[in-house]
Amino acid sequence: MAPKTRIKPAPDIASRAEFDAVLDSIAEDQIHRDQLVLDRDAKLNTVREEFDAEIELHNTRMSAAVARAERYAAIHRESIFGKLKSAATALTYFGFRTNTPSLVLFSRNWSWKSVLEAIKQRGLLHLVITKESVDKDAVKAQLDDATRAAIGTRIEQLEVFFVEPKREKAQETRLVGEKKEAA
Predict the structure, then answer these.
(1) Angle CA 55–92–58, to nearest 5
(2) 38 within domain boundaries
(3) Into how many domains does the chain fold?
């Protein structure tokens, strides 16, 4: 990775002409940067395409071989592992791992909604999670400033300075500065 370039802070802009020149410079830098990003991504895609087929071939062969080995190990578990759950060859460690227990549906006749209803019918409400959160859109729309303040909220609308290079619609992107509170 290339080292980051330090740019010394420039003095404040002194005139409208200098302001326009700074904005035009930003647009030129953005367009150049965007082209560099496109060039980089094209090269990365070329490299990925070069290796992806061979990587996928290895993944497919390994998956098939693991499935074959797993079937064999399951059938010959006692002779391969004895009382153990893992073993080794010259190049690998292999075995059976016990996953963390997970709750699953009993059969296709059940859904999580029907499980929830069954829990409620049996009075096992301590097994039900109720999530509460503030409806921010409703607070903004339905309450006045005084009521919002009384419940510890306020509306804030920020103004953000932006610079957009003039370009075709298909290539639109924006440079956005720090958010500043509107006056």
Answers:
(1) 10
(2) yes
(3) 1
- 91 burial (CB, 10 Å; 0-12 / 13-18 / 19+) is exposed
Structural domain for 177, as ranges: 16-98+106-181
pLDDT tens for the 183 residues of the chain, in order: 677 888 888 899 999 999 999 999 999 999 999 999 999 999 999 999 999 999 999 999 999 999 999 999 999 999 999 999 999 999 999 999 999 999 999 999 999 999 999 999 999 999 999 999 999 999 999 999 999 999 999 999 998 888 888 887 655 555 555 555 554
Decide if 9 is inside a domain: no
Establish if 160 belongs to a structural domain.
Answer: yes
For residue 1, tell me if it sits in a domain. no
